[in-house]
Amino acid sequence: MNILMPVLIALHLLAAVVWVGGMFFAYMALRPVAATLLEPPQRLPLWTQTFVRFFPWVWLSILLLTATGYLMVLGVFGGMGAVGLHVHLMQGLGWIMILMYMHMYFAPFQRMKRAVAAGDWPTGGQQLAQIRRIVGINLILGLLVAVIASGGRYLAL
To answer: Rounded CA gap, 34 and 77, in Å?
Structure first.
């Protein structure tokens, strides 16, 4: 076994926990409370500042997930042809998640920040709703990837 494998797996797992765990908290805990207790002039700045603090962690997670994933596949397992279907599924779903995140970050999130800065609550709310849908889909995909990662090779994938 490659001596780097424990470090690669640990970093890979921590990056996934940060990203997927952050989405789970935001979607399942913060979102319903903020929607119930706060009006748009308070809720939208809360979300904007929350995302401003969380998104750098997502970028770092994406960097670590891709780097450690490919280092394991190419440097430890012997390439894409040597890994099981579960690894290919994780990779494919991971790239879908990354592309969805990048769209969310560069489109609705930037529009939401501009709307909040201008006090345009209806537009900010529309952008937050789009972000919510993307995060919901990415959360489902992230949880699916976690299931595949933890049990994929035992599920005959």
So the answer is: 45
Tell which residue, 52, 58, 85, 38, has the closest CA to residue 139: 58
* pLDDT higher than 80, residue 6: yes
The 8 Å CB, 24+ separation contacts for 27-36 are 27/132, 27/135, 27/136, 27/139, 31/132
- Cα distance between residue 18 and residue 26, in whole Å: 12
For the record, the structure tokens of 54 come out as: 């969380």
Count how many residues are written for the chain.
157
Task: For residues 34 and 72, give the distance between their C-alpha atoms in angstroms, rounded to a whole number.
Answer: 40
pLDDT value, residue 69: 96
The 8-class DSSP code of residue 26 comes to: I
* Predicted local distance difference test score (pLDDT) of residue 157: 54
DSSP 22: H
Predicted local distance difference test score (pLDDT) of residue 152: 81
Q: Which residue has the tokens 């998640």?
A: 97
Amino acid code (one letter) for 127:
Q
**111 pLDDT more than 70:** yes
- Confidence class for position 155, pLDDT limits 50, 70, 90: confident
**Tokens standing for 78?**
């012997």
